[in-house]
Amino acid sequence: TFDDGPTKYTKEITDVLKRHEVGGTFFFIGNNVKRYPDSVQYVHSNGYSIGSHSMSHVNFTNLTNEKKEYEILQTNYLIEDLIQEKVVLFRPPFGSKNEETIEVTNKTHSKMVLWNADTEDWKTHNANDILDYVVNTKSSGSIILLHESPAVIQALPKIIDYLKQKDLEIVNLK
Question: Which of its termini does the chain have fewer beta carbons within 10 Å around, N or C?
Fold first, then answer.
């Protein structure tokens, strides 16, 4: 999964996934959707799943329920307007959630998606460190968290090759 897009790297990540014939899911921030609408359409037209990562990437545990609902729904509306398809996946920024976040997620008919393998690529910005994390993690059944960056683009083909060598299928989340 790829968080914090769309960015100037979205199309390149999509192309790597496409070239290797594997799945992927992108969690987009609404404010970035406004900046890169063509990247949203590109991801969708190539068959990859798209979810909401909120409008402004704020910690949901600090928000009122009304603001949480806005953050989810406004992003969904922006994406849906571009791809003409309902958005149901939602990943709260930082993975921060509380009981109210779960209630609002259910109220908006969204499905919250977290992860169980965090490469911490935003800390290292190093392709080898990202790959090493994946190699040294139980990958089968994992939802791997990546962010859109040059280091991820560099590591991604090696990650894909490694997972394929383990006979693991890389799929879109639905």
Answer: C
pLDDT tens digits for range 125-135: 999 999 999 99
Q: How many residues does the chain have?
A: 174
Cβ partners under 8 Å of residue 128, min gap 6: 155
CA 174 vs CA 3, 23, 103, 163: distances in Å = 16, 11, 20, 20
pLDDT value at position 171? 98
Q: Which of these, 41, 51, 39, 95, lies nearest to 75 by C-alpha position?
A: 51
Global pTM reads: 0.97
Which two structure tokens, joined as six digits, stand for 95? 């993975």
| Alpha helices, DSSP H, located in the chain | 10-19, 30-35, 37-45, 65-83, 99-107, 121-124, 127-135, 150-165
26: number of Cβ within 10 Å = 28
Instruction: State the average pLDDT for the chain.
Output: 97
What single letter denotes the amino acid at residue 132?
Answer: D
